[in-house]
Amino acid sequence: MSETLVAAGADASAPAAPGARRFWRRLRAQRAALAAASVVALLVLIALAAPLLTALEGQDPTTYHPDLIDSARGGVPVGPLGGIGADHWLGVEPQTGRDLFARLVYGARVSLGVALAATVLQVGIGTAVGVTAALGSRSVDQLLSRATDVIVAMPLMIMALALLAIVPAGFPRTVLVTLVIGLIGWGNTAKIVRAQTLTLKGLDHVAAARLSGWNTLQVARRELLPGLAAPVITYAALLVPMNISVEAALSFLGVGVKPPTPSWGQMLTAADVWYQAAPQYLLLPAGALFVTVLALTVLGDGVRTALDPRAASRLRVGTGRGDAGRTGKETTA
Amino acid sequence: MSGFGGFLLRRALGAVITLFVVSVIVYVVFYATPGDVAQITCGPRCSPEQVHQVARQLNLDDPLHLRYWHFLQGLFIGQDFSTGTSVEHCTAPCLGQSYQSGRQVLDIIATKLPVSLSLVLGAMVVWLVLGVGTGVLSAWRRGRLSERVLTAVTLAGTATPVFVIGLVLMIVVCGELQLLPFPQYVNLTDDPEQWAWNLLLPWLSLALIEAAAFARLTRAAMLETLAEDHIRTFRAYGVGERAVVGRHALRGALAPVIALNANNVGSAVGGAVLTETLFGLPGIGQELVHAVKVVDLPVVVGMVLVIGFFVVLANAVADVLYAVADRRVVLA
């Protein structure tokens, strides 16, 4: 009895290689998810390489170019196509003349950075609260579940909007937006994790681990976390595009990331006025948002399918001889 | 306490407790911020005298719990505000007074609420009809070209932020094609037809992204139901395809649709803020953004509480509807 327990424990704490490998295989089996993953990778690369790309262009996102603006015509960029040329690859911003390409690629940094960091916060808090509620005493569970209900009752956009009003102006806005989204948006993660932990708690191997004298922390780490990984990762993958939209929305309303820091949502604030003179001023940030959220959503769907045990048959991977063949190929690659 | 009555009572009690806790948290978060509360409350444009007056009005020397008690009193029996020279009575439910305009917060909300309700409720009709309809259609036409097109369109729909859809709709429909004038809010009671025409674009902007989520959910739930044994039995008995899909499979999607609708009220309210700002509709959202920008704290707090009230209410109603649609919930 104790031998099998040790074996089970060792198995759970061993590197998650088989699970991770199966996950990648199942993800790659979906063409749409693969394409989305490539787009996301490209976007991350652009965000990371923003200083390099703008150096290549010879511009930066904050310098004003009044000479490129026709102030007589209300601030329209000089030249055809909104000032597109060898110096300014995508033209310049109306009224300020700031380089659009530079603002767009630096905007990717803000967008992805805020969304990812906020997701990490949401998932971290949500998982901690959910696991504690499910494993704690009845009163702890009551308290945390009630707290979760309350946080779910407060709409993220509204609370974020309101909170941004009272924070002193000196606080760095990008960090602030991340914190606000992360600290308010953990409710659903906590709910999912609590429900999943309760299910896992009833399973034999977890009960056995508890009976063999492991403390709660050991049980949580070795027996519960592996079972929680799939639902948490699935939900986190859905949170990222949602957070991108929220950051863009807050910045669009003028209470999120503030100039001179570029953000896609903020770029759209004034874009509707200029759509005839400089259509790319509207189309570029809107398109960037659309592509990013779409790619992340498709990738999230793919992650869900890859982690869903019921989806195995649909993907036609993960069973039988084909599986062994693929695994072999993978280890050599 | 058991059965449906007990469930209703428990749910109502839960909603009241949640609302109470929300009010405490919102109050504490906004009125116990580090820094000069009077200055923040009054806003950056206030003169030192005004700040002083605000500090007196808020009784900042009192401990926080006492101040919250006064706030609760105002909510249930009304409150008096001294404006220096005269005393102004704010009848219950009193949410406080704006420091920018001097108007009572509840008055401001009452004048803005019809606009926001028109927007959100109208959009809800659009997203339910459009979303569930698309979901049913794509579950029915599974594997055909039309289903693939619908799936692609709904996927694109979920990926487009509300304000991007709104911007594009406004520019294309009002600007380029000039099919509609730029929306301007008309009261429903003044002219129902103009009301609907002017809200058409805002409704679509707000509803499309939600409709996409409903389409995906309805499709998934219906496909699951269609694969179940009782559906096969219906088919074996010769029940027509239209009845199988339209009546029996749709019933399986009812409960998840209700649950999602409740879940999405919060995000729809957020979307309403964007839609109102974009189209210049004089609703609660636009007022909230304004209040946030000028840091008019009583207005911000009052609006957050009122919105919280509606979200909690919507959740409670949805839970009850969910229980009606699926009686097993009551037992849980």
From TrEMBL, chain A:
<keyword id="KW-0813">Transport</keyword>
<dbReference type="GO" id="GO:0055085">
    <property type="term" value="P:transmembrane transport"/>
</dbReference>
<dbReference type="InterPro" id="IPR025966">
    <property type="entry name" value="OppC_N"/>
</dbReference>
<keyword id="KW-1003">Cell membrane</keyword>
<dbReference type="InterPro" id="IPR050366">
    <property type="entry name" value="BP-dependent_transpt_permease"/>
</dbReference>
<feature type="transmembrane region" description="Helical">
    <location>
        <begin position="147"/>
        <end position="169"/>
    </location>
</feature>
<comment type="similarity">
    <text>Belongs to the binding-protein-dependent transport system permease family.</text>
</comment>
<feature type="transmembrane region" description="Helical">
    <location>
        <begin position="32"/>
        <end position="53"/>
    </location>
</feature>
<feature type="transmembrane region" description="Helical">
    <location>
        <begin position="224"/>
        <end position="244"/>
    </location>
</feature>
<feature type="transmembrane region" description="Helical">
    <location>
        <begin position="110"/>
        <end position="135"/>
    </location>
</feature>
<feature type="transmembrane region" description="Helical">
    <location>
        <begin position="175"/>
        <end position="193"/>
    </location>
</feature>
<protein>
    <submittedName>
        <fullName>Peptide ABC transporter permease</fullName>
    </submittedName>
</protein>
<dbReference type="Pfam" id="PF12911">
    <property type="entry name" value="OppC_N"/>
</dbReference>
<feature type="transmembrane region" description="Helical">
    <location>
        <begin position="281"/>
        <end position="300"/>
    </location>
</feature>
<dbReference type="GO" id="GO:0005886">
    <property type="term" value="C:plasma membrane"/>
</dbReference>
<feature type="domain" description="ABC transmembrane type-1">
    <location>
        <begin position="108"/>
        <end position="300"/>
    </location>
</feature>
<dbReference type="InterPro" id="IPR035906">
    <property type="entry name" value="MetI-like_sf"/>
</dbReference>
<dbReference type="InterPro" id="IPR000515">
    <property type="entry name" value="MetI-like"/>
</dbReference>
<keyword id="KW-0812">Transmembrane</keyword>
<keyword id="KW-0472">Membrane</keyword>
<keyword id="KW-1133">Transmembrane helix</keyword>
<dbReference type="Pfam" id="PF00528">
    <property type="entry name" value="BPD_transp_1"/>
</dbReference>
TrEMBL record, chain B:
<keyword id="KW-0812">Transmembrane</keyword>
<feature type="transmembrane region" description="Helical">
    <location>
        <begin position="299"/>
        <end position="325"/>
    </location>
</feature>
<dbReference type="GO" id="GO:0005886">
    <property type="term" value="C:plasma membrane"/>
</dbReference>
<feature type="transmembrane region" description="Helical">
    <location>
        <begin position="149"/>
        <end position="175"/>
    </location>
</feature>
<keyword id="KW-0813">Transport</keyword>
<dbReference type="InterPro" id="IPR000515">
    <property type="entry name" value="MetI-like"/>
</dbReference>
<keyword id="KW-1003">Cell membrane</keyword>
<dbReference type="Pfam" id="PF19300">
    <property type="entry name" value="BPD_transp_1_N"/>
</dbReference>
<feature type="transmembrane region" description="Helical">
    <location>
        <begin position="195"/>
        <end position="215"/>
    </location>
</feature>
<feature type="domain" description="ABC transmembrane type-1">
    <location>
        <begin position="113"/>
        <end position="322"/>
    </location>
</feature>
<dbReference type="Pfam" id="PF00528">
    <property type="entry name" value="BPD_transp_1"/>
</dbReference>
<protein>
    <submittedName>
        <fullName>ABC transporter permease</fullName>
    </submittedName>
</protein>
<dbReference type="InterPro" id="IPR035906">
    <property type="entry name" value="MetI-like_sf"/>
</dbReference>
<dbReference type="GO" id="GO:0071916">
    <property type="term" value="F:dipeptide transmembrane transporter activity"/>
</dbReference>
<feature type="transmembrane region" description="Helical">
    <location>
        <begin position="115"/>
        <end position="137"/>
    </location>
</feature>
<feature type="transmembrane region" description="Helical">
    <location>
        <begin position="12"/>
        <end position="30"/>
    </location>
</feature>
<dbReference type="InterPro" id="IPR045621">
    <property type="entry name" value="BPD_transp_1_N"/>
</dbReference>
<comment type="similarity">
    <text>Belongs to the binding-protein-dependent transport system permease family.</text>
</comment>
<keyword id="KW-0472">Membrane</keyword>
<keyword id="KW-1133">Transmembrane helix</keyword>
